[in-house]
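User: Reviewer 2 asked us to show a designed sequence for the structure in our supplementary figure. I'm pasting the structure tokens here. Could you produce the per-position amino acids so we can include them in the response letter?
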């Protein structure tokens, strides 16, 4: 079995050797040498070789005759081939001879083809280079002409379109190297033009604003905005739009701060305010135009932020500078300028309500300035007034005064010329000034977008301030100033009476110019009536004070002998000072109450005032005489002195009974002396029993005698009696009188103690 397998293996190896390429039989032969049957395999190999040799021999024998025949044929062809070679050689020689000219022509043709190809290549290259050169030339021309935005566009086209197509040439490299430099040059030049533009509009903003204030639209036509547009386009193309926007806004904010900073002397003239407003308007006209003609260089939020900043600065500046102004005309002109300023900016869409609110604040300041001016005016009128009724000699003069002041006096109208108006020049002048003040208030209220009711209320409140503060103080000044006489005080009363009566005409005047009926609900009423009443009462009080002061001057001349020993009053005459005083009072009241036969150069004192003045004078005389009796420095008073005082009181009572002023009922004026009269009667008649018995009863004869007063006077009489008794202590009558005085003093003290308890 092993032998069979070995034989089969050797057969396989032999077949593999026969079918495998020589360089690949190594592994096959190794398997033979690795085996144990090497000799047997060699035998089989030799047998196989012999078999193949026999096959080769058989094949050669089979094909030998054909090989011999082929050789014979080949020898025959050899001769023919030699002939053919000679012919080909000859033909080639002739062909070479004939082809030299053609070859030369072909070489020339080839050279032409090369040249043609080079020309085509050159034309192609030039086709790409010429646009580059043309565009670069155009770029240089645009740069020289300062057309930077088209130059930048040309530069972009040159860089991204033309140069890549042109190829790698030296001039292209130079151009490419110059492109960043040109961009920088264009950017810097554009920025320089923008700076010049910003500087120009800063300098000319007042002119722009002035034009806008005059005609509102079209002011931006004064400005060439092309540098802004150019620079914006250039920076946009360069991809630096954000840088440009930030720079522009930053620079404009700086300019805004400069524009909003007023000059320190702006308040001195209206022109200073005008320049300030013109610059601000010019600034915002430019910004508004930039807002609407560029896409996003400035936006609405940026402009509104600038305007809010400007508003706060403007209002603060105006508040500060207007506070220095004391000229109402300048304030009024400033108000009109602010209104024009606000209306102009409102036309460009800026909110201006805060400016009108500030104008209402300035209205208070304007009112204060008006009050100061009218205070001076009223004082000048009062200083120049002669405080005398106005004489009128012609109808024209009469109509002139009645046109200036609403005089309603039918009786005066009927009197023939010449005649006198009851008031002095102050009245028509003051009334005209009141109307002028109202007009001045109205002028400020115009164009403030206020309703008629608001204007009416503002005017009335301002007029009330004029009446209650300014005019009232001026009248008080006229009344209280030194050396003012009774005639002037009386005329002040007459004047204020007529001005009080004219208040409803002022009410109607205000209603006419504001078109608001005076009876409108919640309408402010004028305080003129109370103002003139207060002034009149002050003048009346001053008359009383002045009259009493004059009386005091007479009373200072009183020189009573308080220790007089005169008995009875039958032969006594009134004191000289008192006679002079009564004479003065009679003359005074005669003049100022228009009694028959009295002169009429002065104003006539109103009846009630005259009555009050007369009563006040009598009371003052009575009180002063009582004070003389009770003066602590007068330690002794004799009965003789009381008799002299009684004579003087009778003189006063005689004056009172003569009715120096009409209108008193019965003996009303005598009541002023009743305290003094009852006291003197009690002492001169020594009627103590009646006084003590009836004290406290309404029917008491000495009802107005105060026990304290009586006690004080008795003490002084007791002192006089005690000193007299030193020399007459042995007279029984004196001793009895001293005892009687002591008794009465004791009874009075008991009476006082009882009532105090």
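Assistant: Here is a per-position design you can include in the supplement:
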């Amino acid at each position: 079995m092993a032998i069979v397998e070995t034989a089969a293996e050797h057969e396989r190896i032999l077949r593999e050797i026969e079918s495998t390429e020589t360089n690949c039989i190594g592994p096959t032969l190794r398997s033979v040498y690795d085996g144990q049957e090497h000799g047997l395999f060699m035998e089989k190999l030799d047998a196989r070789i012999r078999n193949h040799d026999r096959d080769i021999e058989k094949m050669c024998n089979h094909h030998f005759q054909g090989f011999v025949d082929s050789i014979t044929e080949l020898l025959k062809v050899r001769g023919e081939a030699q002939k053919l070679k000679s012919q080909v050689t000859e033909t080639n020689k002739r062909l070479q001879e004939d082809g030299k000219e053609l070859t030369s022509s072909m070489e020339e043709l080839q050279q032409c083809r090369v040249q043609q190809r080079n020309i085509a290549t050159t034309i192609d290259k030039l086709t790409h280079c010429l646009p580059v050169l043309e565009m670069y030339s155009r770029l240089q021309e645009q740069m020289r002409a300062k057309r930077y935005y088209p130059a930048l566009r040309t530069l972009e086209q040159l860089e991204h379109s033309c140069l890549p197509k042109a190829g790698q040439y030296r001039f292209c490299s130079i151009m490419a190297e110059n492109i960043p430099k040109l961009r920088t040059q264009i950017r810097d030049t554009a920025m320089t033009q923008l700076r010049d533009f910003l500087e120009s509009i800063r300098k000319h903003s007042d002119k722009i604003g002035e034009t806008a204030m005059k005609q509102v639209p079209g002011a931006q036509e004064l400005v060439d905005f092309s540098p802004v547009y150019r620079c914006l386009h250039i920076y946009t193309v360069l991809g630096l739009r954000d840088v440009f926007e930030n720079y522009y806004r930053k620079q404009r904010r700086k300019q805004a701060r400069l524009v909003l900073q007023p000059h320190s002397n702006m308040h001195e003239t209206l022109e200073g305010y005008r320049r300030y407003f013109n610059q601000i308007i010019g600034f915002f006209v430019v910004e508004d135009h930039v807002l609407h003609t560029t896409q996003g260089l400035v936006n609405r939020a940026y402009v509104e932020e600038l305007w809010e900043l400007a508003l706060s600065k403007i209002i603060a500046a105006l508040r500060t500078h207007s506070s220095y102004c004391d000229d109402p005309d300048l304030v009024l002109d400033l108000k009109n300028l602010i209104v024009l300023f606000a209306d102009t900016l409102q036309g460009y869409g800026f909110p201006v309500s805060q400016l009108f609110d500030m104008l209402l604040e300035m209205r208070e300041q304007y009112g204060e300035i008006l009050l100061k001016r009218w205070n001076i005016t009223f004082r000048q009128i009062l200083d120049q007034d002669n405080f005398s009724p106005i004489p009128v000699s012609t109808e024209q003069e009469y109509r002139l005064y009645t046109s200036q002041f609403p005089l309603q006096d039918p009786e005066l109208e009927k009197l023939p010329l010449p005649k006198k108006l009851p008031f002095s020049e102050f009245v028509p002048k003051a009334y005209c000034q009141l109307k002028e003040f109202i007009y001045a208030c109205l002028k400020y209220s115009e164009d403030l977008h206020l309703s008629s009711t608001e204007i009416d209320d503002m005017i009335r409140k301002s007029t009330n301030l004029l009446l209650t503060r300014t005019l009232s103080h001026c009248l008080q000044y006229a009344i209280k100033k030194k050396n003012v006489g009774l005639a002037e005080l009386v005329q002040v009363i007459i004047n204020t009476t007529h001005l009080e009566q004219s208040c409803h005409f002022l009410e109607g005047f205000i209603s006419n110019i504001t078109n608001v009926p005076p009876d409108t609900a919640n309408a402010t009423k004028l305080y003129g009536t109370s103002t003139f009443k207060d002034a009149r009462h002050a003048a009346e009080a001053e008359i009383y004070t002045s009259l009493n002061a004059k009386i005091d001057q007479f009373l200072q001349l009183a020189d009573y002998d308080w220790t007089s020993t005169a008995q009875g009053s039958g032969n006594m005459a009134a004191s000289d000072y008192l006679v002079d005083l009564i004479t003065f009072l009679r003359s005074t009241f005669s003049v100022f109450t228009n009694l028959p036969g009295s002169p009429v150069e002065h104003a006539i004192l109103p009846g009630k005032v005259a009555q009050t003045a007369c009563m006040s004078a009598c009371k003052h005389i009575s009180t002063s005489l009582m004070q003389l009796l009770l003066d602590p420095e007068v330690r002794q008073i004799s009965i003789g002195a009381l008799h002299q005082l009684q004579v003087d009181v009778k003189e006063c009572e005689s004056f009172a009974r003569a009715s120096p002023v009409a209108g008193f009922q019965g003996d009303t004026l005598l009541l002023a002396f009743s305290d003094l009269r009852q006291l003197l009667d009690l002492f001169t008649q020594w009627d103590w029993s009646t006084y003590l018995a009836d004290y406290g009863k309404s029917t008491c004869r000495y009802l107005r005698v105060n026990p304290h007063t009586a006690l004080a006077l008795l003490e002084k009489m007791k002192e006089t009696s005690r000193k007299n008794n030193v020399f007459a202590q042995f007279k029984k009558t004196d001793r009895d009188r001293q005892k009687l005085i002591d008794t009465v003093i004791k009874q009075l003290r008991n009476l006082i103690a009882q009532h105090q308890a």
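For the response letter, you might also mention the following. The chain has a mean pLDDT of 84. DSSP finds 25 helices and two strands in the chain.
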